[in-house]
Amino acid sequence: MREKKEISFILQYIKKPRTVGAILPSSRYLANKMMENIDFKQAKCIIEYGPGTGVFTEKLLQNRDKSTIIMLFEYNQKFCSLLKDKFKHEENLFIINDSSENVDKYLIKHQIESVDYVVSGLPFASLPQQVSDEILKKTKSILKKDGKFITFQYTLLKVGFIKKYFRYIDLKREFRNMPPAYVLNCINCN
Question: Average pLDDT for residues 133-161, to the nearest whole number?
Fold first, then answer.
């Protein structure tokens, strides 16, 4: 199953490298590091941008309270179909085949007033600047005060850009990922 998932990931990367952003799915080590700063007992709503094949999603679903709403935004139709099939029995899970730029519209649609955490696998280094700006602006606006935006990047090129929206960023490195990645834990200090 894992080999099939990796082949699917590689094929999608070849077809759409700007939106997939990596040639392989994230490791379980990176997934664990991304989850470290989430208070699953208190979280009412968690959003994930760019879940791909669902490595982070699995961790979110394993650790969440059953009443916690999880909303996934996957732009790639192939990955979105895979996620819908893989997690078809999960309650309080919304899988949306759209850009994260439209997150606010879906929150209104589902009557969600605030978000505790946004977990992101988006490749900000390869996304167009205007798209990245819009996503980060909307993310800051939907997060509750002291809510967290947790993302990873393969380089530090976009840290200054992300700091335009989130002044406080706790940075960690995960070497047991291919390639090694930086985890940015950004706090919304409205």
Answer: 96
- pLDDT one-digit tens code per residue, 94-144: 999 999 999 999 999 999 999 999 999 998 988 999 999 999 999 999 999
Q: Give the global pTM.
A: 0.88
Question: Residue 177: which domain range?
Answer: 27-187
Name the domain count of the chain.
1
Residue 20 lies in a domain: no
Alpha carbons 6 and 181: distance in angstroms, whole number: 18
Between vectors from CA 179 to CA 131 and to CA 80, what angle results, nearest 5°?
A: 50
Q: How confident is the model at residue 67 (pLDDT cuts 50, 70, 90)?
A: very high
Query: Peptide bond preceding 179: is omega within 30 degrees of 0, i.e. cis?
Result: yes
Q: Is the dihedral of CA 5, 7, 8, 14 positive or negative?
A: positive
Does residue 81 lie in a domain region? yes
Question: What pLDDT is recorded for position 11?
Answer: 44
The answer as to whether 2 is a domain residue is: no
Which residues are CB-neighbours of 64 under 8 A, at least 6 positions away?
40, 43, 46, 70
* Length of the chain in terms of residues written: 190
The residue written with tokens 């699917």 in the block is 8
Q: Is residue 47 part of a domain?
A: yes
Taking the C-alpha atoms of residue 140 and residue 145, their distance in angstroms, rounded to an integer, is 9
Token output for 184: 């940015």
